[in-house]
Amino acid sequence: MSVELFRIDDRLIHGQVVVGWGKPLGIRFIALVDDEVARSDWEQELYRMGVPSDMDLIFDSVDGAARRMPDYIADVRRGIVLTGDVDTMRTLAEQTGDVARVNIGGLHHQPGRRERLRYVFLTGDEEQQLRALEASGVAVTAQDVPTSAPVPLDQLLDDGGPS
To answer: At 159, phi and psi to the nearest 5?
Structure first.
């Protein structure tokens, strides 16, 4: 499988994704899956500026990415499928059955979210979606950079964690 990483990160394209994960994994394409970004030439141009010339950046809607997932997986280049929220990743996993592991890389503070790690804040609904994702057979961990230890979902959601 050439998709090396399925990542949820609300900042989408930034240094941790491109350099932190992209370089060590030898990534040559990123499929950024976001309905709004897929419709916005302006946002796409901004994100393109954050990606080196030897890495392709593909913008896709949720439905488009679900249809093209076999192409992403069959691509001979190594890639990342990147979403900005839990719901989008859950939808991709449900529609395709091709998502075996999900990395939560950054979901930052917003009203209604509770701190789980310094870089992961979740609503109750997001927690339920992640639990459902894992119950369907998808391994879910939080890990901001490749050099840090992955945090399993049950540990992430343990009520003894940060509040």
So the answer is: -65, -5
Residue 51's closest CA among 3, 13, 8? Answer: 13
Q: How far apart are CA 109 and CA 49, in angstroms?
A: 25
Q: What is the pLDDT along the chain (163 residues), one digit of tens a residue?
A: 599 999 999 999 998 999 999 999 999 999 999 999 999 999 999 999 999 999 999 999 999 999 999 999 999 999 999 999 999 999 999 999 999 999 999 999 999 999 999 999 999 999 999 999 999 999 999 999 999 999 999 999 986 444 4
Both tokens of 148, joined, read 């840090």
Q: How many CB atoms lie within 10 A of CB 100?
A: 12
With CA atoms as reference, report the closest residue to 121 among 129, 111, 135. Answer: 111
Q: How far is CA 112 from CA 108, 122, 123, in A?
A: 11, 8, 6
Q: Which amino acid, 154?
A: D
The top-level CATH class assigned to 3-156 is alpha beta
Which tokens in the block code for residue 87? 């719901």
Reported in sequence order, the residue ranges of the chain that DSSP labels E, i.e. its strands, are 3-9, 27-33, 56-60, 78-83, 101-106, 114-117, 120-122, 139-142, 151-152
Residue 126 main-chain phi, psi, to 5 deg? -65, -40
